[in-house]
Structure formats: structure tokens, C-alpha cells
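Methods — Computational structure assignment.
A single polypeptide chain was analysed. Its primary sequence is given first, followed by the predicted tertiary structure written as C-alpha cells.
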Amino acid sequence: MTGASGADYGLRLLQCVLAAGRPVQLLISKAAQIVIRMETDLHLPARPRDIQRVLIKHYHCDPAQLRVFGPDEWTAPPASGSASAKAMVVCPCTTGALAAIANGNSDNLLERAADVTLKEGRKLILVLRETPLSTIHLENMLRLARAGAVILPANPGFYYRPATVAELIDFIVARVLDQLEIPHTLLPRWGEEAAQDEFT
């Protein structure tokens, strides 16, 4: 998680992945901690291990499922290509993180982990939360798409008539879960309701 607005996208994604029984290595920037405090009722402590304890309790998950790392933990597993992570999601993703990843910079653990994910040919999903977009942002997105990253902007759809902000968040989280091939029931798939109506 970076410090882009839209902390609830990242928190809801974390909740869903943990609920699916998947292990998570959470990389969280200091700016992300500030934004979480501003945008949600969740108040995280400063140290990664303390954040880990708070989130395990908050999401009622198996303690072995979640590990939290700070931006300067260069010996953490995500910093190495020999680690076993299958995919990485930056959610939400700032345009600053986008630029750093697009240019192969590794000034913190998150950027290094993204670089490792690309070089190892693993799935990298960037949930960009910014508007409007400059030519620089668009060129960085194109560069990353050509390198194999999935650019998944936080642009929810309205065709299923969402009634709450939570439903708008779930629209994007559902798209990310699909990319990760994690089953979910956050919202009906296109055409499912119509197909059900035909046979009832």
C-alpha cells in the first residue's frame, strides 16, 4: 500500500485475500499509514510488527497468514527473486510509485519488490488512484504494460447500480481478485443475473 487516496481499496483487498485463506506479505509506506488514519477509522501503530498484530486481530485471520514489512526492511523476502510470492498488487498506487517502478528505481522495499516481480515474470497489478493523468503518467503506464504489468485504475463501474461506497470499492477489489484468480462473490458477473432470470 502506498500513500494514494483510496486506502479502503487496499484494506478491503487485504480483508478478502486473508478471508480466502491466502498468505499475505503486506508492504506499507509511512504515507499509506497517514492516509489510512485520514480516510478510515483504523489507526495503525508506527512499527511494522505492531501493525501486523493490529491487522491480525482486526481481520480475525490466522497469525501465520500475515506478515507486515516496513519500507526499509531490505532483508525481507519480497526483496529477493528467490522468495515464493506468486503475485504483487500495489493498491492503491501513487503516480510516484508508478514512476519509480516504471524506471526500475528501488528506493524502498515496495519499489524493490515490484522490480523483482517484473524481472521474475510474475504478475504485478497496479491499482492507480489518480486523476487527471498527465502524459508522463500515461507513458509510465504504457511502459509498465509493455513490461507485463497489469494497469488496473480504480475506476468503478455503475452498470450494476451500486447503492453504497462499499459497493464501489468492491467493484475494483473484485477485478483485482479476478486477476489473482481468487474466487469471490463480491458482485455478480456480467450476464449472470440475466441468465438466472431465463431459467427461473
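Note: The mean pLDDT is 94.
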